[in-house]
Write a structure and sequence with these properties.
465 residues; Aspartate Aminotransferase, domain 2; 36% helix; 16 helices; three-stranded antiparallel sheet; 14 strands; binds pyridoxal-5'-phosphate
Length: 465
């Protein structure tokens, strides 16, 4: 349970006047003048009123809020990682180049791709990079292909990225929670540049027809794009490269244990098959003899997509995480999938509806639409969970499920936590409608106006005036 303080803002705390310094104080600095002790107490209180993966269950579907081992933070703050300049001469940062070179090889091994760029700073940025690669490839081939096909279950960044790269987006409906092959075949033609697919998809369902899908796309001369933001389900078990994907992005800040939320920093490396390697952003890192070098030689490259070489600290954490886990990476996926199916069954037993019921991968989606009869919406249940000390799941996504609750327990939670969560969810189902609609009751901040919070966020104390 979160702590609760009646904590004023720093500028609301009455200052203790130190008269003798008044003459030399800079008057224009309009910040509170408080003793360190008070400032420390303030920030510790704020941190105690916060909720994170280190304090409790955080089943935010599609976000993979797994535990981030503290060793990774220590590695990322090492002098030779944290205090190097990207402008240093190659010869002075050989270890850093080696780390990036080896990370690229590891990601190739995990995904079955042939080459990676580590530059993109987020998943969406990776998608955009992948789409630019697709565009450059067809321009080079002299083919005019203007369409990108995307299922209606996709993450919203997919259509946005394709559109930003200059493509038209064609959305196809899902059938029983999967790609509808007939619908796909109906829209694929000589103008199709790519099909963007998430597998397992956002319902946590594995697209078992993936080889047939790949065939349809290949026969049309188009590219198959893999949204690998949530690789947590298949690491060490299956490879997008083996499924026929040509381009894929990963979210190191989800699957490979960099803390995220609040906007970064992240890393969304993009992998491609050999025939697309020359289109990757520059520089690439090559090993010449025993030396690592930046390579700017490709003429087909789409150019740079980041300043310098990407978010190096995030890369260092992913590299460490993969080395730490080694062959056990696959255990993480197995446990993530087991946890997700276990919790899904418990919630079904408690009375929740699982659309397209069947085995799931790392996450699952339930629908709370039955509760609408009582005037209760998914958001009310989400808010009520806060009273019981749980972070709510992702709500209202994917869009193809009404009143969706998208739940991703991750591999790091134990049975006791999952049981407790299921028990609380079961209890909420029978709670009074008014109680739910006015929740949360026990948190420092009560129900917020979600629309105002998104449209008119107050991000500094100045906005509060
Ligand atoms: C998180 C996510 C993305 C976007 O990643 P960002 O790093 O937030 O840009 C894309 N696709 C899927 C399926 C995701 O879960």
């Amino acid at each position: 349970m979160m702590a609760k303080y009646d904590e004023p803002l720093l500028n609301e705390i009455e200052e203790e006047k130190e008269e003798k310094f008044e003459e030399i104080e800079r008057k224009e600095l309009n910040i509170p003048n408080l003793p360190e002790r008070q400032v420390m107490k303030h920030f510790i209180h704020l941190s105690q009123m916060n909720y994170g993966v280190d304090t409790g269950f955080y089943p935010l579907g599609s976000c993979t809020m797994k535990y981030n081992p503290k060793l990774l933070q220590r590695i990322a703050s090492m002098e030779k990682i944290n205090f190097v300049s990207p402008l240093q001469d190659e010869s002075t940062v050989q270890g850093n180049l080696q780390l990036m070179y080896e990370l690229e090889k590891m990601l190739c091994e995990i995904t079955g791709m042939d080459a990676f760029t580590l530059q993109p700073a987020a998943g969406a940025h990776g998608e955009f990079t992948g789409m630019l690669i697709a565009r450059a490839y067809f321009e080079w081939k002299g083919e005019r292909r203007k369409n990108v096909i995307i299922p209606d279950s996709a993450h919203g960044t997919n259509p946005a990225s394709a559109r930003m790269a200059g493509f038209n987006v064609i959305e196809i409906p899902s059938k029983n929670g999967r790609v509808d092959l007939d619908a796909l075949e109906h829209v694929v033609d000589g103008e199709t540049a790519a099909f963007m697919l998430t597998n397992p998809n956002t319902l946590g369902i594995f697209e078992k027809d993936i080889l047939k899908i790949a065939k349809v796309i290949k026969e049309a001369g188009a590219l198959l794009y893999y949204d690998g933001a949530n690789l947590n389900a298949i690491m060490g078990k299956a490879k997008p490269g083996d499924m026929g994907f040509d381009i894929c992005h990963l979210n190191l800040h989800k699957t490979f244990a960099t803390p995220h939320g609040g906007g970064g920093p992240g890393a969304g490396p993009v992998g491609v098959k050999k025939f697309l390697e020359d289109f990757l952003p520059l520089p690439r890192i090559k090993k010449v003899g025993n030396e690592y070098k930046f390579d700017y030689s490709s003429k087909k490259s789409i150019g740079k997509v980041s300043m310098f070489y990407g978010n190096f600290a995030v890369l260092a954490k992913a590299y460490t995480y993969i080395l730490m886990k080694g062959k056990e990476l696959k255990n993480a996926s197995e446990k993530a999938v087991l946890n997700s199916n276990y919790l899904m069954e418990k919630l079904r037993k408690a009375g929740y509806d699982v659309p397209y019921y069947g085995r799931r991968m790392h996450e699952f989606v339930i629908s709370l639409s039955d509760l609408r009869k009582k005037g209760i919406r998914a958001i009310d249940v989400a808010k009520r969970l806060l009273d019981y000390g749980f972070h709510p799941p992702t709500v209202y996504f994917p869009l193809i499920v009404e009143e969706a609750f998208m739940i991703e327990p991750t591999e790091d939670e134990n049975k006791a936590t999952l049981d407790k969560f299921a028990e609380v969810m079961g209890k909420i189902l029978h709670e009074d409608a008014e109680l739910l609609k006015n929740s949360p009751h026990s948190t420092p901040v009560k129900r917020v106006n979600e629309v105002m919070a998104a449209k008119k966020p107050k991000l500094t104390w100045k906005d509060l005036k």
